[in-house]
User: Fold this.
Amino acid sequence: MVPDTTELHRLLHRHFGFHEFLEGQESVIEAITSGQDTLVIMPTGGGKSLCYQLPAMFLDGITVVVSPLIALMKDQVDGMAEKKIPATFINSSLGQSEMDDRIARMKRGEYRLIYVAPERFKSERFVAALAPLSIALFAIDEAHCISQWGHDFRPDYLRLKWALKDLGQPQVAALTATATPEVRADIIEQLSLGKFGRKPPQVFVSGFARHNLTLALSHTANKAEKLEHIFDTIDELKTGIVYCATRKNVEKVYEELAGKRLSAIYYHGGMTEEQRTKAQDKFMSGRCAVAVATNAFGMGVDRADLRFVTHYDIPGSVEAYYQEAGRAGRDGEPAKCELLFNYADVKTQEFFIDGANPTREIITSLHLTLLRLCKHGPVEMPMSEIAEHVKAAKNDMAVGTALHLLTRAGFIARDYRQGSRTYTTRLVEPVKPLDELALDFERLDAKRQRDFDKLWRMIDYVDCHGCRHGYILNYFGETDAPEHCSACDNCGIGPAPKRRATKRAKTQVAASAPAAPPLDISAKEKTVLLQKALSCVARMNGRFGLGRITLVLVGSRSKEVFDSQLDELSTYGLLKELGYDFTQELLRRLVTAGCIQVTTDEYPKASLSEMGRRVMLAKTQVNIELPPFEKPKPVARKTSSAAAVAAEAEAPYDVALFEALRQWRHDVAGTMGIPAYLVYPDATLKELSRQKPQSEAALLEVRGIGPAKARQFGAETLGIIRGAS
Ligand code: ADP
Assistant:
């Protein structure tokens, strides 16, 4: 029988000792008890557990709770025991006889709640033991782990849909703290919520508003400024977490705190389990006030009295940010969440995304590399060494992920050797070509795009001028997100972000141009200016350094430009009026702002970061100060070769042939995945349409065609010219 509100309150009080439901709990419980499939999205600490624990008290049958947090299962079950609710857990921490005993008791119907780790469903024996029981509710905690779009995908979760089938499709409650609309849709689809004759699933989003948190964003020019913020915060608020994106940053920040004799621990995935447990215990027990950590520090952190969470680096998504920031003020008392932002930090997240999502090019190249390396049998080689053989890879992590994908697709097998502490890689027979492997490139590309989109939504949070609480609640899909709050920097009532100019930033500006005034242009003109600069970087396709890009932007007539036919680019001369010094400094500032990335090799090459691409496409804005402006000196006079080029450019040519060649060039470039001008620049196409060479020898006379080009494209080029005459 479905209990009414009074009955629900009575149960709440009697079994759990609470007087009121937390926001959202009651409606979720009503939907569950009326037999509907539900998807519950509540933040960490929002009270999700009660949503299935309370119904478990009177539903007719067992409630199975799937949870990946083995470490927390025992606590949950002990909590249930205190409330006199018969519950148990079954996971890998149990010995075989204990497990058998619990399964036997489960079969005898001695439990109302059974907590199970997702990997348990690998065991046919376990599923078979569960199948005959009457399962009233199948509650899936951390349900976002089923979605490959989520940040925490766990393959074991995919097994759940088969388990549900074997268990006769019981009613499902999926619960999570983090789910974007697409992850939500994925959860509903993967778990077939609302199918099998049940009503459409009810989706609840609630409890994300955290009125006691002040959200602040501080633009910081450098690490020293970030540290200043952290010291101020610790000084004022004492207890909290500083999240960093990398292990290296964790250790650096920790050392700075230790240097000031501040009580802190550090925590990241590179530490041994023993070190991590020790650090976590020290912090959780209150013996230490500050934790400096990567996102590895999280699951199970429930110290309620944290007065601040500061992000030293931008995280990869709004979900990650809010989950981490939300660890502040769990006791309901005021707490501050500050993000210390510098556009250059976006690069780290882009690096992670690149690493987690290898491109088709990298996978293809790795496939070829492995065919070659493992031709004569298994090779014992660490990933970093394999990566050295992969042409397209700039990021070892991407090769690691690609190795994983090729292993999963059954192309290779990798075994870890304790002795050498490295992997042996071998080809799996029969050795398959790439297109016969189960690799869904479209899906991989889409995932990469989604990861970048999430990062952009996080950058939008940085750039947003409205209420930050409102932005986050909208993001999570809460319908009544406020337009104004009293606790964020943008609404002006919370603490304003500190924007102190550092000594270093000041001297930099002073040194580069002591007396020059700033360039006086409107905000719109400034945006266009940045777009012009960035589009030139994009056009040069990561093949040149900042110096050459500057030359192109200012329309230099230098040999370096003409020799590479860079004067053919549409961005050539775009910033002519602004001069070399200004343009070069502007590009440097775009590097600092994270819009341009520069390689660290002997000849550093510049390319657009995803952030830069977004600024170029006007999808986001970047807040950089323009360099000082002095009227530029005239650029170098035309060289004789430049004069010749200019004269050639004026001469008539066969437009129809030019167009035919251009179309062919477009197709070739597309197939090869390279920019068109690397096949032939426009000047060469015009020359071909003018001279119409009929032989390979004549072809070599055309400016821009050397033996290599002639070998590569000669036959096709001549074919088009012949076809057109
Ligand atoms: P979640 O799983 O969403 O992270 P929990 O279920 O662990 O959150 O609940 C967080 C805390 O809130 C727990 O300490 C729990 O006892 C408490 N809680 C849950 N429901 C209520 C309620 N109705 N009234 C007061 N406290 C509650």
Remarks:
- The two ends are 87 Å apart (CA to CA).
